[in-house]
């Protein structure tokens, strides 16, 4: 992409109000790095136990950075970071103040990219990371407390690479951040009150995965509703649609995630020198840097055999990995809303809709909604203008017991 076009893309996103540039003089937090250094060895405890916490800063809310216990895709205990936000204004709705788990949109792979850092004005925030603040603000403005997870990743010392869009680990991180918010002292939040989940893109997949696993992994949580925007439900489809396009970086992130979560697959053995170099570069990037740096790359140029990544994912051992990470195989126990632009230029809309139909076939309560989109260009990103408001409004209904019966059979 030319420098002129690159500046134009960034200017368009900022002007649209979708993202905000980080404040140049954002205050640093006292002792903030200690939250990202877990006890060694990890202490015994329950999933969602708070290991460490430190005060953070965020307009309109009391913010606390946390380190909590969770589980990776192999059921191994891990330390995960995040932030709990409690609005400064009192809760005026019925019952107790709800907590919503916010599953972040793709933010990158480098330690500097973690949302718990960038939301506090630290790390290396790019303009895309401003979306995280927009979603958090929409939820806070409704009076909800927000429990934001960073997922597993290198922002926590010893955390390894980020298992990007790996279904089990991201679902666990989302559900356990709700538990952590309920157990965090000094917040005034209820220990067993109503909770919800919301996310878009990578976060939509994490939210959808959490919806499927909540009943078995965290049955004590009173999950009233889950919003999943533009979920990457079928990784096999994405390996084809992203290859060689503007957003091929997301496919690179997914391969790094597979390599982290399934080392036994020995994915790096497939890469040629250029592929290995891309792995090393991508693991240090935040989203926008990766998009611009790798756009147009053909994965066939990165493998020893000259075959594209999609061809490997269709055969052992990767076909089993793809199957394990497909979303739509389990019935969510709570009402769900799935929303996506029919013109989505990153995640094919058919994948999100198929996931919703799969849930419907299992008897789930599903509300499908087309995100408003006026152009096929940047439609995935521009969908983020609408997603926070739609998610918040729908969760408000869910917390009132008014989520409805869904629209299965009508989409």
In the CATH hierarchy, what is the superfamily of the largest domain?
Alpha/Beta hydrolase fold, catalytic domain
CATH topology description of the largest domain: Rossmann fold
Strand order of the largest sheet: 1-2-3-5-4-6-7-8-9
Tally of strands: 9
Mind telling me the C-alpha Rg?
Answer: 20 Å
Rounded mean pLDDT is 91
Low-pLDDT runs: 1-32
For the termini, the CA-CA separation is 37 Å
Main beta sheet strand tally, sense and closure? 9 strands, mixed
Strand content: 15-25%
What is the number of helical segments per DSSP (H or I, 4+ residues)?
14
The CATH class of the largest domain is identified as Alpha Beta
Descriptive overview:
InterPro entries: AB_hydrolase_fold, Lipase_secreted. Residues 1-30 form the signal peptide. Keywords: Signal. It comes from Amycolatopsis nalaikhensis. With 411 residues, the protein is α/β, with parallel strands linked by helices. Helices cover 35% and strands 16% of the residues. The chain is built from 14 helices and nine strands. Strands 1-2-3-5-4-6-7-8-9 form a nine-stranded mixed beta sheet, sandwiched between helices. Strand 2 and strand 3 form a beta hairpin. The longest helix has 17 residues, at 167-183. The radius of gyration is 20 Å and the shape is globular. The two termini are 37 Å apart.
């Amino acid at each position: 992409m030319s420098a002129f076009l690159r500046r134009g893309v960034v200017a368009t996103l900022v002007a649209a109000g979708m993202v905000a540039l980080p404040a140049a003089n954002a205050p640093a937090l006292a002792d903030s790095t200690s939250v990202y250094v877990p006890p060694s060895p990890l202490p015994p405890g329950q999933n969602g136990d708070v290991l460490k916490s430190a005060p953070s800063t965020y307009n309109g809310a009391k913010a606390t950075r946390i380190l909590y216990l969770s589980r990776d895709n192999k059921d191994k205990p891990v330390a995960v970071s995040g932030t709990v936000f409690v609005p400064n204004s009192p809760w005026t709705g019925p019952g107790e103040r709800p907590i919503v788990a916010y599953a972040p949109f793709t933010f990158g792979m480098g330690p500097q990219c973690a949302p718990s850092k960038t939301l506090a004005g630290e790390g290396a925030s790019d303009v895309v990371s401003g979306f995280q603040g927009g979603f958090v603000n929409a939820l806070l403005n409704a009076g909800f407390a927000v429990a934001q997870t960073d997922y597993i990743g290198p922002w926590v010392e010893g955390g390894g690479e980020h298992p990007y869009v790996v279904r089990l680990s991201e679902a666990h991180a989302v559900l356990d951040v709700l538990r952590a918010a309920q157990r965090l002292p000094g917040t005034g939040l209820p220990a067993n009150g109503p909770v919800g989940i919301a996310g878009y893109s990578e976060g939509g997949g994490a939210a959808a995965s959490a919806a499927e696993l909540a009943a078995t992994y965290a049955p004590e949580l009173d999950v009233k509703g889950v919003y999943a925007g533009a979920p990457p439900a079928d990784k096999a489809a994405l390996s084809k649609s992203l290859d060689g396009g503007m957003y091929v970086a997301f496919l690179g992130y997914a391969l790094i995630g597979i390599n982290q979560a399934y080392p036994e697959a020995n994915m790096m053995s497939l890469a040629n020198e250029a592929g290995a170099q891309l792995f090393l570069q991508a693991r240090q990037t935040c989203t926008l840097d990766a998009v611009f740096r790798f756009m147009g790359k053909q994965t066939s140029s990165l493998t020893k055999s000259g075959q594209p990544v999609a061809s490997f994912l269709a055969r052992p051992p990767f076909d089993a990995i793809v199957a394990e990470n497909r979303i739509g195989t389990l019935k969510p126990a709570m009402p769900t809303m799935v929303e996506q632009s029919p013109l989505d230029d990153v995640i094919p809309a058919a994948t999100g809709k198929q996931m919703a139909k799969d849930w419907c076939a299992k008897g789930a309560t599903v509300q499908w909604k087309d995100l408003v989109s006026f152009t096929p260009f940047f439609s995935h990103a521009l969908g983020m203008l609408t997603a926070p408001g739609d998610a918040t409004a729908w969760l408000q209904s869910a917390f009132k017991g008014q989520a409805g019966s869904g629209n299965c059979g009508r989409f």
